[in-house]
Amino acid sequence: MRDPVLHGEYQSVADMQEQPGSVLGVICFSSAPPMADQTLCLHVPMQRLDGPEPVCEVWRCSGQVAEGQYGDIRYRQGDGVLFGVIALPEHRFDSGRPLLQQAAESAYRQVFELIDRLEYPYLYRFWNYIAGINAESFGMERYQQFNIGRQDAFLAYGRDVLGNAPAACALGMREGPLAIAFIAGTAPSLNIENPRQISACRYPQQYGPRSPTFSRASLVRIGKGLVLFISGTASIVGHATLHHEDAVMQAREAMTNIKLVLDEANRQSPDSFDLAGLAYRVYIRHPADFAPVRAELARIVGGQCNAVYLQADICRTDLLLEIEAVHAAKSFGME
Ligand code: 3EB
Predict the structure, then answer these.
(1) Contact criterion met (CB below 8 Å) for 144 and 211
(2) pLDDT tens digit string along 128-161?
(3) Which residues contact 163 (CB under 8 A, 6 or more apart)?
(4) Could you tell me which CATH number the domain at 6-333 has?
(5) What's the rounded Cα separation, in Å, for the pair 234 and 290?
(6) Where are the domains of the chain?
(7) Which one of the listed residues 57, 90, 296, 322 is annotated catalytic?
(8) 212 Cα–ligand 1 center, Å
(9) Would the CB of 127 count as within 6 Å of ligand 1?
């Protein structure tokens, strides 16, 4: 039997249909609504700044995959890994309490129930896409409502909210249902923090009544491969935002944070990771910042920088960008 493999990369729809291996799941970014498509796909309504749409993050695994639906989740399960997506319209919930909080709690509860049932108990990565992330309702910013609902679900299922959380990102778009993708598996992951940043699970109250629930990265051994998921990373040192008006400086600070996370990952697995070996997704609030930020990343990474740029809102109003990454080593590829 071949070793199980999990591999992620950014592709156009055409590339995606040509490659071998079983597609485990897809996150598809485009301003236009998605084309009908048989692959399991989460559509995220965001504009790409650096090339044609749609642009997809495609996860493949070795061996067969089985597909299923559980409540609002559509999922595929393969050898040791499960990929799921949820798109939850907020109008389904009752208007007495913050709708987004209820939607987030419901989505996360369903995820925990599913992975308990199917016995993929370890969560590696969440992608969270939230309409109007900086808007206020019920006297609270919507990102804070999301954090309450998410944390309530973690607590309800007895999961750790003070450390050991999965990697994640949380970005804003103009409209659309709460859109979440996740990867879970049968092997524990190593969750990594950044020594230069307070754990997000322990942010002080000034950022909201409940902290976000994520680690700076998660490292998973799958077969002979290692997958490193780096969470959305911003210009935050300690818990404070730096360089309020300067997107290039924010990019530099975020990349310093990513470099420190890589150093932590390399302590677990020496010389496995470097900046040039990552595939990046860069979320930029103001399209005018795209060109200078891309030039800065090219300077820092050097040579070819494998990155996709999208227009998005970021969860703090003073953040102008967020950068996430995944390790894309060749050894993960399908033979
Ligand atoms: C930060 O470091 C920036 O709420 O899941 C990054 C990654 C951020 C994930 C989340 C938020 C989340 O706090 C924001």
Answers:
(1) no
(2) 999 999 999 999 999 999 999 999 999 999 999 9
(3) 191, 193, 199, 201, 215
(4) 3.30.1330.40
(5) 15
(6) 6-333
(7) 322
(8) 7
(9) no
